[in-house]
Structures are given as C-alpha cells and as structure tokens.
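Our platform keeps sequence and structure together, in a single record for each protein. Nothing more is needed to write down the fold, since each code stands for a local backbone conformation. An entry from our holdings is shown next, in its original layout:
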Amino acid sequence: MTNGVDIRTKNLKKPVDVAEYLFTRLHQIGIRSVHGLPGDFNLVALDYLPKAGLKWVGNCNELNAAYAADGYARVKGIGAIVTTFGVGELSAVNGLAGAYSEHVPVVHIVGCPSTVSQRSGLLLHHTLGNGDFNVFANMSAAISCAVAKLNDPAEIATQIDHALRECWLRSRPVYIMFPTDMVEKKVEGERLETPIDLNEPSNEADREDYVVDVVLKYLHAAQRPIVLVDACAIRHRVLDEVHDLIDKTQLPVFVTPMGKGGINETHPSYGGVYAGSASAPGVKDMVEGSDLVISIGALKSDFNTAGFSYRLSQLTSVDLHSDHCTVRYSEYPGVRMKGVLRKVVERLDMSQIKVQAPPRFPEMGTTPIGDTPASEAVIKQNWFWARIDQFLRENDIVVTETGTANFGIWATRFPANVMSLNQTLWGSIGWAVGACQGAALATQDMAGPEKARRTILFEGDGSLQLTAQEISTMIRHRLDVIIFVICNDGYTIERFIHGMDEAYNDIAAWRYKDLPAVFGGNEDAVKSYVVRTRAEVEKLLADKDFNDRKGLRFVELYMPREDAPKSLMLTAEASAKRNAMTE
C-alpha cells in the first residue's frame, strides 16, 4: 500500500469504480432500463445507474421484475435485473428459470454481503443462518449459463466481460454476485474503450462446408421441401438468414407456436402454424407430407407440438440449431446454424429447387367471423381469435399468456413485422403481465414514447391475479399498452386437463376494469372498457380513440367458462393422458 492505495490500483491507467464499469458495459450491449427492487445489499450500486445512462424501473416484486426483464430482452435483445441477496433473488428464480428454459438472455445482478462478512461467516439477515454465502449462487447456477462472483478486483473486469458475452452468445441468463465492498473498488476503465466482442464464433470451415454440402444434396433432390421455423431461430438471431432462404427459394414456410411472429405472415410463402394434430388440415397435410423438412431452431416440447403429436420422420428432417446440426440421423456437434444457413442460401442451385404453393390462407380482412354480431351474441374463443387479426397493425408487439390466449393466437394471422411473445415451454401463468411491461418499455427505449410500437396483451383472468401489480409499473412509466383480460371464471387450461367443475380451478371475482384506477391511473393516461357481446367487440375495435390513444387501454372481455380453442382442448387431452400414465 502507498498512501492508502494498493499497487494494483496505482498502476491502473483509467481507474473506474466496479459499479460504473458493470453498468457502462450493460449500456454498451444495448440495455437502457434495469428492472428490479432495491435492498440494502444493492443500494450503493444503484446510485451508479444514472451516470451509465441507465433508467431504474422499480418493479412491484422480484418475480414480476424477472418476467419484465425477460420481455424486455425478447424485444431489445438483452435485459437486466438487480435484486438483493437471498430474499430478493429467490423471488426472481422462477422468472429466470423461465428465461433459461426459453433461451432468453437476462443479466441477473445480485447485491450481496461484503467479502469481509462472508469470510467471517457472520449471522446476517437474508441468510439461512448457517454462514453459507454461496448457497443461493449455487441454486442459480443450474439456471445460468455463467456465474460470476465479483470477489477479487484484479479479476472483476474480465469476469464481467465474460459473463455478458456468454449471456448474449448463448442467449441465456447469467448470474453476477456483487458484494457491497466491491462496488467502489477500482478496475481498469481503459477496457471500456473496446466493446465486448458479441460476434458469434465462426464454424470450422471444413466441417461447415461438409454440412452445407449434405443439406444441399437432400434439398436439391427433394420433391416437396418445406421450412419449419421455431423459437430458437428467433432467440439465436438467424431470422435474417431464414428470410433470405425463403425469399430466394419461395419454399413454403411454417412456424411452430413458439416460432409465431418469426416469419413475416404476409409473405407469399407463409403457410401457417404447424403443431401436429392441432394444425389446420392443409398445414398438417403439407408439413407431414413433405419429403424434406428443414427445421430451424426447434424446441419440441409438449405444448409446442400439441402433446407430442408431430408426425415427422427423422429420415426426412434437417434440424439446424445454435450449437449443432442434424441431417437425417447424422449429428454434427459444434456446427452452428447461422453459418450453415448463410452458405446454403449462397450455394443452392435454384434450377434444382422444387416449390409447392403453401396452403391457402384467408386474405387479411376477410377472415370468416361467423354470424353477424348481435347484442345477445356471446364472444366465443374461435370467433374472437379469427377476428382480432383485423385489429392488429404492422409492427405491433403481441403478448399472449399461457392458457387460451397462447393457443387461440395460432388462428390469428399477423400483419407484417408483428412480434409475438409467449412462454409456451416454461408456461408460468402470470408471466405475460410482467413480460408485457418489459416489452413495452423496450420499444419505448428503442423508439421514444411517440414512436414506440403498440404492445398488446391477451391475458386470462386467473393469470392476471398472480401479477396484476405490474399494471402500476406500466402506468408509472406511461407505457403504450392495450390489455384484453379474458374473463372466463378461472383456470381454463387446468379445467380441460382435469377438474372442469372443481373448486381448485375457480378464482375470486374481481372488478378488473377498476384496477388501473386502483394503481394510480388518471383519465388522461388510462381508459377502461367492458365488452360482453360480439357487437360490443366490433364497436370497440372500430373505435378510433381506442385504437389511436396513447397510454393504457384496459379491456374486461367476457367469454364462456367452458369454451376454449380446439388446439387447447387437444393439447390438454394429451396432457391428461400423459399425467395418468403409470408405466
């Protein structure tokens, strides 16, 4: 030590505090707003946010904050949440596990006790009382692609850069444990002049070329090839390459439920949603009758396949993933899909490509909606989801909750460039409210309040009751959001799996339209509506003020209790059978 400054610090060219370094790096990789809650172990670090150009969101609880950071990341590319040790971080774990499951990059920063307290094993609040300060980090390790414990100032800058790079490249959460006595320690600020390299590593050229040649061999020979786009094509950022492929070849392209929104649904090659037995007949016939399915970023979960009802042969499949490719029964570890797709597009011989016309899809604005709405006509699920596409606009962000909305939206054809957010794999009800807040904030951060995209949430009444507080965050930040609360008296998807009339699938009756006022919304920023019939839906969707006003529009929309999209019924039936299996 020299005059209170250690030699390491004295030799730094441009010393900056660790908190400034960390938050500056967050800004550099695209984050503008940080979700979370304050706690005594993160308070001093939070003081550094404004200097780094970051806005503090301030959520109602950590679970909601994790959901919101997930939604923010799906729109902005990456998100961040700050919690406090133990009680705060554990409240966020469910949301972060969902982000891990669904390949969403979220940086989780946990303010924790000082390294001195940890070494001493002090009996501190927010601990288990056993002196183990690593127990919560160990819990989070299984749902994080990297864990960084910022205990040594000599290593901290490298740890931060590595964690953020892993978060981006692997598109999964990372966990950063940030002790209170490290916040003001100095690290090398000169590193900030060089951005973190977020470029995906190139495939080994010879191996990539071999896979490309094999793919082209089967593609050129195929008589009925199609393209099937799933969630990881979105998460791992290959949609440009996918659109280049379909633009050049005009091959029929389909999406899975988790891949919805990944393809421009006004594209002439777009054929619809493929979900096994729950698909439209024309979609099912073309996909399952194909002699080559180029599957991009597949996540073949039960709800994404309508109860594992895919009828696709591995002998006619090319599966492209973020860390490997599989052609028929041959797997190529470490060969990433982005490089393969680029070369396939460059090298394919159009004279050898056979193209079918995709299944006929009703023209936009002519989707059949049944009988003319009348004052006594109730709002049925199938009618509503076929009708809502005429309300949507180009560039909207559509968020659907696990339940009827997730399944119903399959029947809605999107205008161009609509982004769809769902949590089909993890399926934590209530996720969509927090995710909606994060998504709406992300588009506001990207384009400003006046040019932000509309964010439209379709939410079940039961799910809303889990995370309703986040409506107050939407109001607080003046976000441009439309919420349709589907009031059908409880947990519909659970009713169709088991216990249609059982009390455990019932919920308390809320006055939903009053929630925005309860959460502080005034008449200028919030407007509530109630619709019970088709006629009232038509009137609302035609209302210019409803369509064009800014702020929160909150719709209480009533549907019959035992009504559900056919796709949900089929998936629920398969789930019930699987739950009942004994061997």
Notes: The CA atoms of residues 19 and 301 lie 40 Å apart. The mean pLDDT is 95. Residues 153-170 form the longest helix (18 residues). The two ends are 68 Å apart (CA to CA).
